[in-house]
Amino acid sequence: MGCDNSKYLDAAVTVEKLDVGTSCVGGVGVAVDPSSNRLVVAGCKRMAVFSTTDMSCLGTVKIDGTSVTRVAAGGGVAVATVDSLFGVAIVDLATMQLAGTVKVDPGLRVFGAAIYGSTAIVAGCSKLQMIDIASKTVTAEVEIETGLSLQQEVGLAVDHERGCVVVVGCNTVSVIDIRTAQCVGSAKIDTSSFPGGISVALHNGRAFVAGHSRLLVVDLATLTEVQRFRIHTGASSEGGVGLAMRGSTAFVAGPFKLLIIDTRTMTELGAVKIRTGT
């Protein structure tokens, strides 16, 4: 997938005017819905939706609660984690309306999110839960070992071809079979430079793992790190970043800007400002 750099840079004025409430601790969540070519950015107060073709803002949705810092998108739906609700908020991307909320195990505390078909998947420091989006009910859960404390975030992303979810925690990467809810692979990787939140996105057999100042690449066949790059998101060491992929293009969101990176060459194609709010 190509990326017209000029379109993204021209969109800076539109994005700069948007208040996504990103001044709250925890960073920003970002996701791409492949079915509608929409980019979803979530801060502590609201969710904003953009076109991935020209980065025009399509609208915003207010979400009650605090620390809305992780978001997933797919099939015309976005799911955002809401720490104060101990659950997730479900947003219809066609109507830009909040469709409802689902409470999960309070023990998850801080969690990542992913979508697989009609199932939303959330994970915390020791557990992964699966939610049926239509009925808004928890249908399954899996105990996982992430090496995380309750104050740290876990990153996860769905491998749609294999029907698995890749979970990255503190120095650990695990692969969970969604159909059987069983762990089918686990390995150690070095995420010691990711003291805050972790975000994960998949492309072409690789997992891209983002922290506040690093982007590392993990080969999913061997679960080993193959590359590591420095990025400048503006996030503090305590704050997380959001990461999403559209083809070979990565969108990395920090508290003040959204980076657009060509993962084939690991070069920055552009950056747009995100105005913070209180």
General description of the model:
The chain is mainly β. The chain has two helices and 24 strands. It has helices spanning 5-10, 12-16; strands at 29-33, 38-42, 46-51, 57-62, 70-74, 77-82, 87-92, 97-103, 112-116, 119-123, 127-132, 137-143, 155-159, 164-168, 172-177, 182-188, 199-203, 206-210, 214-219, 224-230, 242-246, 249-253, 257-262, 267-273. It has a four-stranded antiparallel β-sheet with strand order 1-2-3-4, with no helix packed on it. A four-stranded antiparallel β-sheet has the order 5-6-7-8, with no helix packed on it. The longest helix has 6 residues, at 5-10. It is globular and about 40 Å long.
Key attributes of the depicted protein:
mainly beta, 4-stranded antiparallel β-sheet, 278 residues
Which strand-content bin applies to the residues? over 45%
Q: What is the CA-atom radius of gyration, in angstroms?
A: 17 Å
Rounded mean pLDDT score: 76
Number of strands: 24
Secondary-structure content class: mainly beta
Principal-axis shape equals globular
Q: Which regions contain 5 or more consecutive residues with pLDDT less than 50?
A: 1-26
Strand order of the largest sheet: 1-2-3-4
Give the count of helical stretches: 2
